[in-house]
Amino acid sequence: MKVLNFYSVKGGTGKSSLSLLSGKFLASKGKKTLILDLDPQRSISKSLGKSNEETTAYQWLLGDSSLKDTLQATTDENLYLLPGSLKLLKISESVNQNFIQEEIETLNGFEYIIIDNQPSWNSIVRTGIQASHKVVIPSLLSLFDLEEVSFAIEETRKLKKEIEIGVILNRVLKVDKPTNEEKEYLEMFKDDFKGTLLSSMIPNSNLVRKSIDRQEDFLTGKTDTKKKFSKIVHSFLEEITGEGFQPTLFGGN
After folding, report:
1. CB 5 within 8 A of CB 34
2. Contact at 8 Å (CB) between 54 and 28?
3. pLDDT single digits (tens) 6-31
4. In a 3-state reduction of DSSP, which class is residue 95?
5. How far is CA 149 from the centre of its chain?
6. Which pLDDT band holds residue 252 (cuts at 50, 70, 90)?
């Protein structure tokens, strides 16, 4: 079992989108995957139609229910969800640092756990990082994001020194041919985050929004845009998991 944690101290960088895309991709490859929606905005739970569950991450983190009893199956084969809750804001500093790790150890059969974190540095974030094998930090390709990424890396390593960290540049306008401005920022990121900056970059694509808001399948389809986007997600997941996956067989509409 491998635990991947999507974290940034800054909101709006695409943590939830990349968490869900990653979960859907891994599940499509036959990997039994669980997403823990620990962001009070609960975007993933809303997208998967699980935002109104009576038992959620809130009851779980309070210790009123077990992880096994709280997770839910989704309509995607092999994909499960721990539904999120707005009430997580009430217990942001009330969770034991080893809680999530201990709870995950009670699960059997899952190959991947994905944690979608909130843009904060509270006890919920820290217990999630403590349980993780790798932290993935999404960032926009902007001068204003450098300090936030540096903070996330520094605090994560203080908490768990040997943890793997990968910085993924998200919503890049020109992945194949960056603009001159993007090239300048890219050089800054390469200088500041050597050893953590991933070679993959996620484009600024409507397919991300459609896959989240409309549950549109981004993995299959005959259009060149879908094929290209699917290959980018494929490369990204191979990079953060260290696994090799069979190429997607395109078809359908």
Report:
1. no
2. no
3. 999 999 999 999 999 999 999 999 99
4. coil
5. 15
6. very low
Q: Is 113 left (phi over 0), alpha (psi -120 to 50) or beta?
A: beta
Chain centroid, CA 130 distance in Å: 16
Residue pair 152/8 in contact by the 8 Å Cβ criterion? yes
Planar angle of CA 93, 94, 95, nearest 5 degrees: 105
Residue 174 identity = K
Report helix, strand and coil shares of the chain as percent, to nearest 5. Answer: 40, 15, 40
Confidence class of residue 220 from pLDDT cuts 50, 70 and 90?
Answer: confident
Spell out the residues 6+ positions from residue 231 whose beta carbon is closer than 8 angstroms to its own. Answer: 247, 248
Per-residue pLDDT of 105-160, as tens digits, reads 999 999 999 999 999 999 999 999 999 999 999 999 988 899 999 999 999 999 99
Tokens of 210: 């459609």
CA 217, 220, 224, 228 torsion-angle sign: positive
Could you read off the pLDDT of 52-110 as tens digits, one per residue? 999 999 999 999 999 999 999 999 999 999 999 999 999 999 999 999 999 999 999 99
Q: Is 94 exposed, middle or buried (0-12, 13-18, 19+ CB in 10 A)?
A: exposed
Q: How confident is the model at residue 253 (pLDDT cuts 50, 70, 90)?
A: very low
If we measure between CA atoms, which residue out of 164, 143, 119 comes closest to residue 13? 119
Cα–Cα distance for residue pair 128/5, rounded to 1 Å? 7
Question: Residue 225's pLDDT band (boundaries 50, 70, 90)?
Answer: confident
Could you tell me the CA-to-CA distances from 155 to 33, 124, 190, 202 in Å, in that order? 27, 14, 20, 25
Alpha-carbon gap, residue 118 to 125, rounded angstroms: 7
